[in-house]
């Protein structure tokens, strides 16, 4: 593990080498154990880290990012059929530039959709233009899904759980994607890209190319997550905090704008099935020293509470706390 010390980014989030991904890590148990320990340590300290040599081919990453950029570059009339604020839509394009956030204005276009598995219903909802969007998306998502399962196995091992603990219902809900497109902003001082929030999911993997803009809260400050060539930024969502009994907390993050350069982030969100029972892992609970901080609940129940909390971390967690001192 190395630390990113670029002073321009004012951040020192861990950068973890996965040594080529699942296959190579599986061939070396000592190396795998070391990487698992680094991931858990980074999660406990920062809640955010970056992974390199992760096994997702750069060709797949760049090909899909190019296809996504080409979609945003389409004429307005060709994108219009996808415009919607209806969150039940399988694929929707929207903007937050008209969102009234009180004193803060927002500067972002985005698409949100279900990206994995590539079911017939999902594929039918994806745009037909550019023609390369759908095939590049399938290739990208399959690779990222394998990376996500590798990371979840390593997290489990680093916590002393069975390596397959997060497989099955904990991570087999439809994987969602958010592609955030931030055009150059005339006055970044009065706008945000995204407000402060925590993810509702289990795990998020994000590419941000070479344009900085993601900030994570650490020690009461907002720190810029400096881009690392070829890296995925990884952060844990609320479900990971519940399941690990608070050991791996979800961390607030936000996006800032700039006046000169387009920034596009591609975030892939791995989540449980709606009917998955969420509770602290029994192995991480000890009634004498580490009592359960959260009660049992269905993931679908949390989704309702999250929407009602309006991006407040504490309001989203409160209904599920056991209130142990």
UniProtKB/TrEMBL annotation:
<protein>
    <recommendedName>
        <fullName>Fe2OG dioxygenase domain-containing protein</fullName>
    </recommendedName>
</protein>
<keyword id="KW-0479">Metal-binding</keyword>
<dbReference type="InterPro" id="IPR005123">
    <property type="entry name" value="Oxoglu/Fe-dep_dioxygenase_dom"/>
</dbReference>
<dbReference type="InterPro" id="IPR026992">
    <property type="entry name" value="DIOX_N"/>
</dbReference>
<feature type="domain" description="Fe2OG dioxygenase">
    <location>
        <begin position="172"/>
        <end position="272"/>
    </location>
</feature>
<keyword id="KW-0560">Oxidoreductase</keyword>
<dbReference type="Pfam" id="PF03171">
    <property type="entry name" value="2OG-FeII_Oxy"/>
</dbReference>
<dbReference type="InterPro" id="IPR027443">
    <property type="entry name" value="IPNS-like_sf"/>
</dbReference>
<dbReference type="GO" id="GO:0016491">
    <property type="term" value="F:oxidoreductase activity"/>
</dbReference>
<dbReference type="InterPro" id="IPR050295">
    <property type="entry name" value="Plant_2OG-oxidoreductases"/>
</dbReference>
<dbReference type="GO" id="GO:0046872">
    <property type="term" value="F:metal ion binding"/>
</dbReference>
<dbReference type="Pfam" id="PF14226">
    <property type="entry name" value="DIOX_N"/>
</dbReference>
<dbReference type="InterPro" id="IPR044861">
    <property type="entry name" value="IPNS-like_FE2OG_OXY"/>
</dbReference>
<keyword id="KW-0408">Iron</keyword>
<comment type="similarity">
    <text>Belongs to the iron/ascorbate-dependent oxidoreductase family.</text>
</comment>
């Amino acid at each position: 593990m190395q630390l990113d010390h670029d002073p321009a980014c004012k951040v020192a989030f861990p950068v973890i080498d996965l040594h080529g991904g699942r296959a190579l890590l599986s061939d070396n148990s000592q190396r795998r154990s070391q990487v698992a320990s680094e991931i858990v340590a980074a999660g406990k300290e920062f809640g955010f880290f970056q992974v390199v040599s992760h096994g997702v081919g750069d060709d797949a990453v760049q090909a899909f990012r190019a296809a996504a950029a080409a979609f945003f570059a389409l004429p307005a009339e060709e994108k219009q059929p996808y415009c919607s604020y209806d969150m039940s839509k399988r694929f929707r394009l929207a903007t937050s530039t008209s969102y009234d956030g009180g004193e803060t204005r927002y500067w972002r276009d985005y698409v949100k959709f279900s990206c994995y598995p590539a079911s017939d219903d999902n594929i039918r909802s994806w745009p037909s233009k550019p023609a390369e969007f759908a095939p590049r998306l399938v290739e990208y998502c399959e690779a990222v899904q394998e990376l996500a399962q590798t990371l979840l196995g390593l997290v489990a091992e680093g916590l002393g759980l069975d390596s397959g603990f997060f497989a099955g219902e904990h991570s087999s809900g439809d994987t969602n994607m958010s592609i955030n497109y931030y055009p150059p902003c005339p006055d970044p001082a009065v706008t945000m890209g995204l407000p402060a929030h925590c993810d509702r999911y289990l795990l998020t993997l994000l590419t941000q190319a070479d344009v900085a803009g993601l900030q994570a809260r650490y020690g009461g400050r907002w720190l810029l997550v400096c881009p690392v060539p070829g890296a995925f930024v990884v952060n844990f969502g609320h479900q990971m905090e519940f399941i690990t009994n608070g050991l791996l907390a979800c961390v607030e993050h936000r996006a800032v704008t700039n006046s000169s350069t387009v920034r596009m982030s591609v975030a892939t969100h791995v989540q449980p099935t709606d009917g998955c029972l969420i509770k602290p892992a029994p192995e991480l609970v000890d009634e004498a020293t580490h009592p359960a901080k959260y009660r049992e609940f269905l993931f679908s129940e949390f989704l309702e509470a999250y929407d009602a909390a309006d991006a407040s971390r504490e309001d989203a967690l409160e209904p599920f706390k056991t209130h142990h001192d």
